[in-house]
């Protein structure tokens, strides 16, 4: 892997110093626009024919003073995301009813071959400059974005010579001021520029205590899927850039993130029927505490004026290990190892990916107003899941390789008020698995290995039209693809005659996203509205067994929804805003070619309304209040076992800025101390052990500054 990484890096380095072709510079005034890096083109955000959100650094700072999880900040902006579980696992935290693709500076963090739902925690928010959110299925970044893209753009180097240091320190306490409910956080980021070179270096640590709910009970630690409470994390980040001239840039980025549970608590299983949640008590849990251990490396090169356009490339690698908690589950039992039927084991997902991406953008073509974006991507992902206590393989080593050229054209017309775009991506992919034997509980059976392959061409087309200044209508159709959770499929094989080449369940998921919407910004008001429909002829639904371990069901799925966002600047000092999402999803339960049953809570979010008010009382003092309302949802499953009783959470933030010294924040999460059961615990699973309450009132005092 490292040899491939170094070889591709050298190719990019050579690419970046190619002689530049001549190009006339455009004249005239320019205005500041937001370019979304995740789109791999130079199209401004407001002109894209689909819903887009950007969370800037100031907004990130506000949300981190309320909750240190960046996923909570995303949920405040993108209401079609399911409520966060406040756990290490993001299972059930869908995005438009499907999975999002998480990226760091364009490097994929998601692991679709064995989706352990740990991709939300691979870096610390201290190094995130902004978050780019692209809604709806697309193939812009290749595999994985059936629900959309969430790209973490890391801190950019300073443009001034010398050093600048940013720092933060914070403490979070539970409402009852319990000692074991206290969390601490600190981070420092140094940014430097010295001639043609620049550097960013950051370290962030967080020590999280146990969480308490609205009734003062210790919230149950998810000892199986993993938890962020009672844990410690360390993030080390570095970025070095070189600009030998004003048209060339080379950059190396390294990020290591390690989060590990302390293992100081064990769960006391609750009673779902009686409404009693699972809680935690002090104790030592057997086995290795749940962990995320992730390293991401990328080397980027860009060169302007190459054959009339800008040529850029990225070579990357990611080494990902996620250790889960364990148990004496029936799935793990093997009488040849322990005939007592009480064998304890736990699993670890391991994914090692490396890849290469190139992009060429040219907007100086002979056809006025036309831009072409073309490129070529290559990805290799090697994944397996082992049982760490006994050394057994639960999921065999599986290797996914894909090559994928693409081209995208856009054309402006009618004095640049109309933008029409369309493109194609060709995917040639192969999955390789050797012959393996399943765990005893599945037979055991021996499954013949194979190398199933597929190829497909995915398209997109869209248009946006600015009717008057500040009023734009748009519409688009796009296809995205991912692999099903191959690990879940392979480890659950029970047919003794099965072989990898003929397993129908390994066929890729292709999601079609149709979207129409409007974007408006005029005077004091700005907003947007979108309607979308997402369909997959052979989708994926997660179904839990008696142990709470999910298997994959492949069925036709359809999801439809609306999203509304608006902001009104009441005065220069006061602004109010809201966003709303309403989603409905169904699947084909009887395989008759027509959807007929509700998607369960593990696969779709509740309808949600977020509201906020911001006020600058003085140049130094500002206030923010926000709320999230999750509406009731009924499911047409057996009885009312997974029906959802909604709830509303209110947060407040007070910030005081001291000129040239820093900012002091006081944030209160769940101000009203609402006692509630998480959406996922109500509707995503019926496992008693995962019947968790949500976090009660918690207060954060935080200081940030720079020198």
UniProtKB/TrEMBL annotation:
TonB-dependent receptor-like beta-barrel domain ranges (all copies): 292-671
Domain TonB-dependent receptor plug: 46-148
Membrane disposition: Multi-pass membrane protein
GO cellular component, one term: cell outer membrane
A GO term for molecular function: siderophore uptake transmembrane transporter activity
Location relative to the cell: Cell outer membrane
Key word Aminoacyl-tRNA synthetase present: no
Keyword Transmembrane included in the entry's annotation: yes
Keyword terms, alphabetized: Cell outer membrane, Membrane, Receptor, Signal, TonB box, Transmembrane, Transmembrane beta strand, Transport
Signal peptide annotation: 1-22
Cited InterPro entries: Beta-barrel_TonB, Beta-barrel_TonB_sf, Plug_dom, Plug_dom_sf, TonB-dep_rcpt-like
Biological process according to GO: siderophore transmembrane transport
PANTHER family in alphabetical order: FERRIC AEROBACTIN RECEPTOR (PTHR30069:SF42), TONB-DEPENDENT OUTER MEMBRANE RECEPTOR (PTHR30069)
Family statement drawn from the similarity comment of this UniProt entry: Belongs to the TonB-dependent receptor family.
Name under which the protein is recorded: TonB-dependent receptor
């Amino acid at each position: 892997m490292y040899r491939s990484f170094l070889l591709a890096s050298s190719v990019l380095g050579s690419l970046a110093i190619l002689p530049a072709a001549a190009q006339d510079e455009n004249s005239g005034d320019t205005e500041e626009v937001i370019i979304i890096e995740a789109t791999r083109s130079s199209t401004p955000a407001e002109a894209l024919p689909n819903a887009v959100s950007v969370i800037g650094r100031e907004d990130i700072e506000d949300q981190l003073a309320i909750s240190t999880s960046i996923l909570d900040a995303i949920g405040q902006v993108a209401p079609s995301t399911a409520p966060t579980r406040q756990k290490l696992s993001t299972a059930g935290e869908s995005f438009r009813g499907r999975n999002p693709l998480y990226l760091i500076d364009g490097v994929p963090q998601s692991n679709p071959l064995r989706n352990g739902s740990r991709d939300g925690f691979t870096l610390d928010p201290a190094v995130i400059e902004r978050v780019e959110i692209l809604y709806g299925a697309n193939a812009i970044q290749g595999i994985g974005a059936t629900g959309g893209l969430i790209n973490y753009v890391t801190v950019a180097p300073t443009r001034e010579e010398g050093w600048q240091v940013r720092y933060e320190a914070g403490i979070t306490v539970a409402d009852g001021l319990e000692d074991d409910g206290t969390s601490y956080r600190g981070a420092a980021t140094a940014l430097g520029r010295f001639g043609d070179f620049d550097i960013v270096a950051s370290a962030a640590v967080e020590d999280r205590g146990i969480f308490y709910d609205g009734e003062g009970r210790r919230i149950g630690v998810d000892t199986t899927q993993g938890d962020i409470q009672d844990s410690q994390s360390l993030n080390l980040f570095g970025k070095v850039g070189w600009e030998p001239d004003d048209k060339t840039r080379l950059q190396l980025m390294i990020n290591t993130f390690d989060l590990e549970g302390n293992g100081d608590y064990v769960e006391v299983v609750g009673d779902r029927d009686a409404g009693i949640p699972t809680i935690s008590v002090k104790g030592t849990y057997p086995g290795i505490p749940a962990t995320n251990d992730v390293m991401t490396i990328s080397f980027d090169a860009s060169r302007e004026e190459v054959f009339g356009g800008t040529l850029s490339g990225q070579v990357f690698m990611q080494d990902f290990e996620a250790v889960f908690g364990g148990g004496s589950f029936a799935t793990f039992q093997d009488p040849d190892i322990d005939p007592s039927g009480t064998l304890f084991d736990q699993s670890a997902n391991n994914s090692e990916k490396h890849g290469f991406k190139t992009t060429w953008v040219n907007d100086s073509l002979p056809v006025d107003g036309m831009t072409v974006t073309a490129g070529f991507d290559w990805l290799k992902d090697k994944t397996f899941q082992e049982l760490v206590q006994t050394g057994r393989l639960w999921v065999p080593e599986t290797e996914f390789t894909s090559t994928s050229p693409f081209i995208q054209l856009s054309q402006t017309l009618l004095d640049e008020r109309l933008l029409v775009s369309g493109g194609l991506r060709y995917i040639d992919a192969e999955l390789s698995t050797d012959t393996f034997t399943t765990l005893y509980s599945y037979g055991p059976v021996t499954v013949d290995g194979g190398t199933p392959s597929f190829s497909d061409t995915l398209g997109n087309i869209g248009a946006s039209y600015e009717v008057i200044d500040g009023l734009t209508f748009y519409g688009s159709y796009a296809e995205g693809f991912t692999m099903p959770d191959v690990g879940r499929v392979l480890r659950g094989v029970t047919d003794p005659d099965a072989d990898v080449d003929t397993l129908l369940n390994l066929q890729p998921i292709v999601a079609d996203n149709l979207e129409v919407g409007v974007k408006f910004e005029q005077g004091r008001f700005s907003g947007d509205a979108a309607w979308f429909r997402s369909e997959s002829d052979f989708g994926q639904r997660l179904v839990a067994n008696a142990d709470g371990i999910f298997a994959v069901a492949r069925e036709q799925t359809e999801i439809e929804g609306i999203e509304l966002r608006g902001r009104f600047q009441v005065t220069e000092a006061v602004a109010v805003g809201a966003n709303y999402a309403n989603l409905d999803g169904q699947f084909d339960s009887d395989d008759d070619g027509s959807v007929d049953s509700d998607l369960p809570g593990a696969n779709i979010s509740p309808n949600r309304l977020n509201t906020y008010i911001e006020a600058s009382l003085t140049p130094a003092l500002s206030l923010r209040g926000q709320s999230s309302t999750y509406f009731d949802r009924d499911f047409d499953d057996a009885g009312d076992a997974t029906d959802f009783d909604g709830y509303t959470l209110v947060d407040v933030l007070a910030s005081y800025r001291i000129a040239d010294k820093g900012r002091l924040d006081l944030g209160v999460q769940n101000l009203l101390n609402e006692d509630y059961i998480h959406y996922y615990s109500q509707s995503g699973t019926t496992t008693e052990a995962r019947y968790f309450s949500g976090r009660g009132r918690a207060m954060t005092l935080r200081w940030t500054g720079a020198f």
